[in-house]
Amino acid sequence: MDEFARIEKFLAPLAGEAGLGLKDDAAVLSPPAGRQLVLTVDQMLEGVHFFTDDNPALIARKLLRRNLSDLAAMGAVPLGYLLTTALPAALPEAWLAAFAQGLETDQRVFGIVLLGGDSSSARADISLTATLIGHVAPGQALPRHGARAGDHIWVTGTIGDAALGLEARRGKLRDRTGFLTNRSLLPEPRLNLPLAGIVSAAIDISDGLVQDLAHICRGSGLAAEIQANAIPKSAAVAELDDDYLELRLTGGDDYELLLAVPPEKADALQGACADVPVTRIGVFQPGEGVNIVSGSGAKLALSSSGWKHF
Amino acid sequence: MDEFARIEKFLAPLAGEAGLGLKDDAAVLSPPAGRQLVLTVDQMLEGVHFFTDDNPALIARKLLRRNLSDLAAMGAVPLGYLLTTALPAALPEAWLAAFAQGLETDQRVFGIVLLGGDSSSARADISLTATLIGHVAPGQALPRHGARAGDHIWVTGTIGDAALGLEARRGKLRDRTGFLTNRSLLPEPRLNLPLAGIVSAAIDISDGLVQDLAHICRGSGLAAEIQANAIPKSAAVAELDDDYLELRLTGGDDYELLLAVPPEKADALQGACADVPVTRIGVFQPGEGVNIVSGSGAKLALSSSGWKHF
């Protein structure tokens, strides 16, 4: 089955109107009237972002969800995507069938369509890239660099599950219910939270809590202090026989939102996040760097400030 | 030098206003008022689309130009791009410096800006993807599937140079002036031709004349007949000691436009392409498939209907 037959069979059925049946050189999109467009791109590489024998449907869904999380961090509404694949010639047709099935599932979940793309043969590793297009009311995109001294630091959901899920998949700890593994394979982008006018900065936690917080600090010219005990922990983590604090601080792939919120906006934040738990974990201060304070008030040192891909 | 330092040093200087200094999760773009957006993506992989020791600046420029050619085939005006890179950790900093220099050169040539992107480490091969965004007046995007029986087949420029340039780079023929090699490394996207209302179908020749013509035929439900002798040949090809007809028919990477034009629009076409040579090479007919007629009137058979990446 050659490149064109593969596209025709598995990907063309996923195309929206603007995708022109994936038969054209490009997609033609009428932007929603009076909106700004938000554009983001993320890749997933075999051996870097996923294991060779991972479920192709879950790879597809995570590829979309990583990008959808970037749109969530901008406060944008997703619209559609372009897909780029580089696949080894020997890859079984069933792999692509399952991959396309995963795309279809999450297209329905998130109300997005395939707009176009590019496919190529690869010499070795599978390489996948999605470009997501969303939209936002003019001037309402959430900033990354707007944190001010005194703003509180909040996170959605629970932190560290994905990194611990990866450890479980490597056999390093026991994931009794499968919750952690699922958090690693199928993140939940925090879309549809009406955060404009409430948060002064937002980022999604893809590289790890400390590293992504450091991005906001650098962009805003501030330091951050977080309370280790305040970092929200899932029930699955709470029942483990170790605290795994360092991994929860530095592990990536959670795709929760990290938010800077003026103290007087705390109620508004909790109102906006009615269906998503939000937790205050610290405060922005003048200075630079990320400080972590333990329960006893001692400062913690980290051996690594970020997450390295496996 | 880590991923963030690389981005800051080499890519952030290329970012336009909508790119938010490449520090945000996504780009925010105000679409040009009253225009449709045209979106396309193309990748270039080490060992598939370029050789490992190719000049990084030329790889960068070809990456942009392949995508710009897709916009040209849609009649779109380019605006900006997202860039995705996967680079081996051992890649010298000088490679990325030269690559960024190539991007900067063609950003100036084509009036485009970097809007955002993603970078990752790669296990082995370099992988590069660009998503280009352009715009077009509503309803004026050039169709791929609108050819009608009786439309003539036209091409811009000369055909086969890039494939012969690749042969020259492999030592299989002598490229006396370097013209063919240059055509292979640095294609010229045929932007800014006012073809709306003149052509009934357009495609850029990336996979090879016969294969891309076959795309139009399938999309339009037609056959095509082309005259082998009519296919325009550069002076550099004319002085070779072989005709290389099959390679010129099937070789890719020329990035010339292949157009379906009603006979009565021939003058309008030539007026629209005042600075770009255009040549009539055949006609669309009822039926299916691509027929090639030699000077003696005999039908030619091809051993391959398309171009395979090296």
Key features of this structure:
disordered C terminus; 12 strands; seven-stranded mixed beta sheet; 25% strand; homodimer; 60s Ribosomal Protein L30, Chain: A; alpha+beta; 9 helices; four-stranded mixed beta sheet; 310 residues; 2 domains; Phosphoribosyl-aminoimidazole Synthetase, Chain A, domain 2
Short description:
The structure is a homodimer of 310-residue chains. Chain A is an alpha+beta fold and 310 residues long.
> Alpha-carbon distance between the termini of chain A?
32 Å
Q: Biggest β-sheet of chain A: count, sense, barrel?
A: 7 strands, mixed
CATH topology of the largest domain in chain A: Phosphoribosyl-aminoimidazole Synthetase, Chain A, domain 2
Biggest interface reads: A-B, 58 and 58 residues
Helix content of chain A: 25-40%
Biggest sheet strand order of chain A reads 7-9-6-10-8-11-12
From the spread of the alpha carbons, the general shape of chain A counts as globular
The CATH architecture assignment of the largest domain in chain A turns out to be: Alpha-Beta Complex
Structural class of chain A: alpha+beta
* Share of β-strand residues of chain A: 25-35%
Number of strands of chain A: 12
Oligomeric state of the chains present here: homodimer
Number of domains of chain A: 2
Task: Specify Rg of chain A, calculated over alpha carbons.
Answer: 20 Å
What is the CATH domain class of the largest domain in chain A?
A: Alpha Beta
The name of the CATH superfamily of the largest domain in chain A reads PurM-like C-terminal domain
Number of helical elements of chain A? 9
**H-E order of chain A:** HEEHEHEEEHHEHEHHEHEEE
